[in-house]
Amino acid sequence: MQRYKCIISYDGTQFAGYQVQPNKRTVQGEIEKALRKLHKDMDIKVSASGRTDAGVHARGQVIHFDSSLKIPLAKWEIALNTLLPDDVSVIRTEMAPDNFHARFDAKGKEYRYFVHLSRQRDPFKRNYAYQYPYSLDIKNINEAVPFLLGEHDFTSFCSAKTDVVDKVREIRQIEVLEEGDMLIFRFIGNGFLYNMVRILVGTLLGTGAGDISPGSIPDILEKKDRAYAGKTAPAQGLYLWEVHY
């Protein structure tokens, strides 16, 4: 039995999320379906670095699985991609140690969030960026960023639905990039809570719009109450960009 590590990318538009759910199309479900065909109807379970919600995309999601098949390493990508739907792709496959775990061995993650700054709707971007038609003061956004860096209790920046008890996380880097009519938020941290990146983006957009004072971020963190942070930005602008090991 050999353990394999795969880097996969997917367009989350037509998925109910990464994790298997009854009677719903999921990324995990499609990958396990492809593995089942390769293994002659034997169930092969995959583990991922984490879940992504419905509509969220991934450029560098990481999974692992065990297999007894004697397929040359270079052929795994071809074999899986032949069986996978067009909105999922295996980018790279590597042999991994038996004790490797895609989730528990991860040291950090990078997420990116794309905001389309336009008053005019672009039908070709609607599933891949959040259209934001209002004016923004980027200086205010950049002023708010340093308050979010470092280790904090991010209770105010995660969904109230989460069942995670320990909400302390470390954000190591936040970049705000302007590329044409696209505003890109880049977050690197040791881990992220449920909806955390989308709430961070919604809050930073709120500072840019003048609805939230950049200097109020420490107070929002201190409150440990979701009601004090900004709106949750829509799913389609979010990408799991890279997982660090």
Can you walk through the features of this model?
By secondary structure, the chain is of the alpha+beta class. It contains five helices and ten strands. α3 (138-148) packs across α4 (196-209). It folds into two domains: 2-96, 2-Layer Sandwich (Alpha-Beta Plaits); 108-244, Alpha-Beta Plaits (2-Layer Sandwich). β8 and β9 form a beta hairpin.
Mean pLDDT rating: 97
| Top CATH class of the largest domain | Alpha Beta
Number of domains: 2
Gyration radius (Cα, Å) is 19 Å
Q: Provide the CATH topology of the largest domain.
A: Alpha-Beta Plaits
Which structural class is indicated by helix and strand composition? Answer: alpha+beta
Give the ordered list of helices and strands.
EHEEHEEEHEEEHHE
Q: How many DSSP helices?
A: 5
Secondary-structure map with pairings?
Elements: E1 2-10, H1 27-38, E2 47-48, E3 57-67, H2 73-83, E4 88-96, E5 108-116, E6 130-131, H3 138-148, E7 150-153, E8 168-179, E9 182-189, H4 196-209, H5 217-223, E10 238-244
Parallel strand pairs: 3-10, 5-6
Antiparallel strand pairs: 1-3, 1-4, 2-3, 5-9, 5-10, 7-8, 8-9
Helix pairs in contact: 3-4
